[in-house]
Amino acid sequence: MLVVGVTGGIGSGKTTVTDLFAAQGIEIVDADVIARSIFDSTSATGQQALAAVAAKFGPQALLADGELDRAWLRQHIFTHPEAKQWLNELTHPLIRQQILEQLAQASSPYVILSAPLLVENRLTQLCDRVLVVDVDEHHQRQRTLTRDQVNASQVDAIMAAQASRTERLAAADNVIDNNGEPAALTKQVERLHELYLRLALAKAD
Ligand code: ATP
């Protein structure tokens, strides 16, 4: 199965773009959705991850009902960088495993792996092609501020923690320019969809 990784910084338009690929019948594996579900207590993986967190940080890391206390953990890793490192080492292999399982289950002609941190977390290793949704920093900031309940310095802090535009573009096989109107995306997605269908056929040969 051909795997196309889609990435871009905060507010670049990844979801807008992957929705257009989904409209063409392409399945989307979303690394963000998987990352949020890693502590889902109804799954075996979630139980394992919750037990590991409780063993590491004590019962204060869990709520009375056994779910993860996300607010406590967020605050704790904010002030304890080594705890953040430990948490990444726990969750990243679990996230990777779930991604691989979902990619293997996909049945569309090719599959998209959408991940804001595709480059930073080396998920590019799982992809045949990397598609970067590119936007200049002015549009990126404006769109994020319009969409989210955040202020400019919070957006800047998130942008600073992500790969730079240059680093992301260096990893790209294809680029979608999202500096224009949303309507300008449709043509770009259709052209790439045709390309990926051809590459998927060539890979299957
Ligand atoms: P994040 O990683 O932060 O979740 P994202 O990369 O998935 O963001 P989107 O949610 O698709 O980005 O887009 C960010 C915001 O910008 C959304 O509100 C979306 O509707 C809007 N947007 C996307 N593309 C355009 C465009 N070309 N013109 C104007 N607004 C746009």
Number of helices: 9
Secondary-structure arrangement, i.e. CATH architecture of the largest domain = 3-Layer(aba) Sandwich
Which regions contain 5 or more consecutive residues with pLDDT less than 50? Answer: none
> What bound compounds does this protein have?
adenosine-5'-triphosphate
Sketch the major β-sheet: 5 strands, parallel
The CATH homologous superfamily of the largest domain is termed: P-loop containing nucleotide triphosphate hydrolases
Query: Can you tell me the CATH topology of the largest domain?
Result: Rossmann fold
* CATH top-level class of the largest domain: Alpha Beta
What is the strand arrangement across the widest sheet? 2-3-1-4-5
Structural class: alpha/beta
Radius of gyration, Cα only, in angstroms?
Answer: 18 Å
Give the N-terminus to C-terminus distance in angstroms. 11 Å
Measured as a percent range, the helix fraction is: 55-70%
Q: What count of domains describes the coordinates?
A: 2
Q: Give the beta-strand count.
A: 5
EC number: 2.7.1.24
Pfam families: CoaE
Organism: Pseudidiomarina maritima
Binding site for ATP: 11-16
